[in-house]
Amino acid sequence: PAPALAGGARFPFTPIPARTDGTVHVPEGYSWQVVARWGDPLFSDADLYDVTDGGPVAKSDRVFGENTDGMESFSYRGHQLIAVNHEFANRKVNLPAAQGGTPADAGDVRKLQNLQGVTVMEIAQGLTGWAVVKDSPFNRRIHHNTPIRVVGPAAGHPLLRTEADPTGTLVLGTINNCGSGRTPWGTYLTCEENFNSYFGMTVPAEPAAEKPAEGTAAVAAEPARPTPEQARYGIGPEDWGYDYYKWDARFDVSTTPNEPNRFGWVVEIDPADPNAIPVKHTGLGRFKHENAEVTLAADGRVVVYMGDDERGEFLYKFVSNGIYAPGAPTGGLLDDGTLYAARFNDDQTGEWLPLTPGTTGMDLPGICIHTRIAASAVGATTMDRPEWVSINPFAGEVYCSLTNNKNRGVKPNAGGDATPVNGPNPRETNRYGQIVRWRPRGGDHAAERFDWDLYVMAGNPTVYQDSYAGSANINAGNLFNSPDGMALDSSGMVWIQTDGKDSNAGDFAGMGNNQMLAGDPVSGEIVRFLTGPKGCEVTGLTWSGDRRTMFVGIQHPGGSWPDGSGLPRSSLIAIRRRDNGLVG
Ligand code: FEO
Ligand code: CA
Ligand code: CA
Ligand code: CA
C-alpha cells in the first residue's frame, strides 16, 4: 500500500515537491495515463483526424474537443460515462500556424465552434488502461451550434428573442463551458462562463455622403456602443479574438443585440440519452457561471450554489419551490424557486439575500437575465472572483475558491460595485487567492443565515511575513496560488486545483507549475498530490464508479505535452494506485 504521511494520517500518499518541468507528476505508488486528447476520435469516421497544423474543419465535431474543464462521471447500466467541458479554444493551437491565431474564413470559425462545448463519452478499461469506447451510442458532441431549449422564468422573454428565433426558446449552442455539476436525478450541468468573449460589434457603415441641408448639422456615424446592461456583462465592441462576429452574424451585437442574452446560463444535459435536447435553465440566473454545486435542503428542496467568476461580482444560491423525490418528475426544480446572493459580514456571519421583485425593483425575468444588477440592488458582498463551490458531504459545510483579485478598488466592470477589502476578501492586492467556507445555520442548506471562516489564505511565507505569507496552514512544502477547481471526495478530503502564475519566481517562487493538492477539512493540513506540465491549468475532477480511478483535466498545457512532439494537447488523464486501492 502507498505509505501514509507521518503526522497526516488523512493522506494515504507521500506529498510531492513543486515541479517546473513539462509533464505530470503524482506520488509514489500512483500512476497516470492519458484517456483522451484534443482531436482524438469519438467515432471511427473521424479516425484520421490530424491535429498537426490545427486540424481540419471536417469531422471537428466528431472528436474530443480542446481545453478540458469541469467534468462528471456517470455509471449507467454498466457503462462508465464521462461528461466533460471544453471551455475555450486556443486559436494559435487550433488554426494553421501561419495565421497567427486569426480565423481566415467562416470554416475556421466553424472549426473553433466545433472544438468547444461538451463531450459526452463512454470509456472503458482495457489492458492498456482507460480508453474511449469509439462509436459508443452514448458518445456525443455538444458545441456552439447545437440546438438547446430554454426554460424557466426568462424563456421566451423579448430580450431573448432574435430574428432567427422569434420564440426566444431555442438557442444554438452552449459556450465557454467552465465548471460542472450534477443533479440528484443523474443529469449533467455545464456552466457558461466568459460568454462575452465571443461577441463583438461591427461599426455601422458611414452614412451616404450627402451634403447636410442648410442650417443642420452633419450626422456622424454612431460608433457601436454597448448598453449599460451589456457593459455590466462585459459585452463591448471587441471580442477576445475569436472573430466569430466577422463571419457569423449572430455574434455581431450591433445587428443581433439579444444574442448575448441567450448565454451565461446553466445548461442541463442527459448523458444517458444522446437524443435529448439540452436545456438552459434561466431560473439559475445569468452571469459568468463557474460551476453549479447541487444538494438538497432538509425538506427535500433543491439547492444550487454558484459563483460568478469576475472581480467584484457575487456568490449565489438557488432554492427550489418544489421538493425532489426519487422517481418523481423533476420539471421546474432548477427554475421555479428563489435566487439569493450572499452577504458576508465582518463578524463571520452572513445572510443569503433573496432576489425578488420586492427586494430588487425588477421583474422576475429581469432578475434572471440581469442577475448581477439584481444582486447589486440588494447589497451583496463583492468577492475576489468566486470559482468552484463544493460541499463537504460529512460536515454540512460549503467551500468556495476565491481565486485572486489584482484590481482591488478599480471598478471591476462597467456598472459594477466598489470592491473594498471585506471579511472573506481581506487583502488589498490579492495575488494568491483564498478559500472561504460557510456552514448554513442548523445544517440546512435552505437556511438564510450562515457562519463563515477562511479555510486557507494562499500566500508565500518564503517571501512575505505579513498577510501575503498566507494562513498558518501554508508552508514552504505546499506553496500554491490561485485555487480554482475543487471537489470533496467520499472520504471528506478537499481537493484543490490551481489556475495561477507558474513563473516560480518572485512572489511565486517555490510554487512551480499549476497543481492539485489535498486538504484535511478538520486539521486544515494541505499537501501536494499532483503537478501539471508547464503552462497548464489543472481543472476538472471526478472518479470512476468504483473510485479506483481519479480523472483529472489538464487544460492549455505548454510545450508538446503529452505527445512529446507537435502541438500541446489538452487532455483528460486517469490516476490510479498501483495496488488498485481507492483514490479518494
Ligand atoms: Fe473558467 Fe473561472 O474558470
Ligand atoms: Ca475555473
Ligand atoms: Ca481560474
Ligand atoms: Ca481556464
Automatic annotation (TrEMBL):
Listed InterPro entries: PhoX, TAT_signal
PROSITE patterns: TAT
Domain of life: Bacteria
Annotated stretches, region: Disordered: 410-430
Signal peptide positions on this chain: none
Pfam families: PhoX
Protein name: PhoX family phosphatase
Organism: Antarcticimicrobium luteum
